[in-house]
Amino acid sequence: MSRGTAERRRAWTAGRRAETLCAWWLRLKGYRILTRNWKTPSGEADIVARRGRLLVFVEVKARATHGAGLEAVSPRQQKRVRRAAEIFVAAHPRWAALDMRFDIMTIAPGGWPTHSPGAWGYD
Prior knowledge:
By secondary structure, this protein is an alpha+beta fold. Helix content is 40%, strand content 35%. The radius of gyration is 14 Å and the shape is globular.
């Protein structure tokens, strides 16, 4: 296995762990996880959750600091999550009447997840 492949595998594993921890954190806050890793050709959402009349698309970032995690969600990535959200709602029309929100959850070594609700809008 090449060095780059091993690093990618470690990053992927760390990302999956972070997503699992964030999903549990959301459950503890009263969210129902509808799906994880919703992938489409034009975008993806790490976690799709529902709480009451709210449909939430969550981008998860595991970084050295929470600030670095927030900065890692670029406008291009936000656009990809928005497109994934549109496709999700089209594929699941029963959720179309809910309000949509885009959140970021970050996790840093040795800490708990930080949830940033409404991190960006639906431009």
